[in-house]
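Lab notebook page, bench 4
Experiment: in silico fold of construct C2
Operator: M.H.
Input chain length: 211 residues
Purpose: comparison with the prior construct
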Amino acid sequence: MPLPKTIEVCRVDLFTPLAELQEKYDAITCSRVVRVRDEYLWMLANPDARDRQFVEEFAARYSVSDTAIYADLAIIKQLMPALSSANRDWHRWKTNQMLLETYQMARKRKDSKTMERAATSYGKLNRVDLEDEQTMPFDLIVVQPFTATQDPSVLGIKPIPNIDEKISRMIEKYRAETIDIDDVEYEEADLEEGDLWSENDDGNAKERNIL
């Protein structure tokens, strides 16, 4: 029986306890998932680490080849977008801790500028400068059951009896009274501009009084 793909297992069970993993998968898959989990947590704690540092760390820790660790790294990078959204709260908490530590260190040194920057960053991260947003209860909004109708009484308008017949009679009446329109071709207008206008000595046009 072929082994399941590690990335598919990690999408579902990356943080599943080992005992439950062993009930669902073979020993090789469980060992790989536990290793990828360890690597992922290390990357969260070392976000500025380079790929080579990552490979050196875990090739030595698990006594496996660099190729195997590079394969793990590829899995983690594919999982990162989905995992990062799920761990946004964790990252916010971690950043808050770093900012608070920076503020305390600056306070001990009486470094007011660093204290101010740390406090400003802390406020922006936690959106304390904005009013609390009220969540719209979208799940409680009921869609109106609209139904198409030709009955004007739903608007409070008294319906006209035999309206379709009256419309047909009006169309026939006005169609018979309509004057036929003839299409004509466009012709240049002969304005005789030379006779209507002349130029003064200063070059401005002056209307001739032709009577």
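Observations: The chain has a mean pLDDT of 79. The radius of gyration is 40 Å.
Next step: discuss at group meeting.
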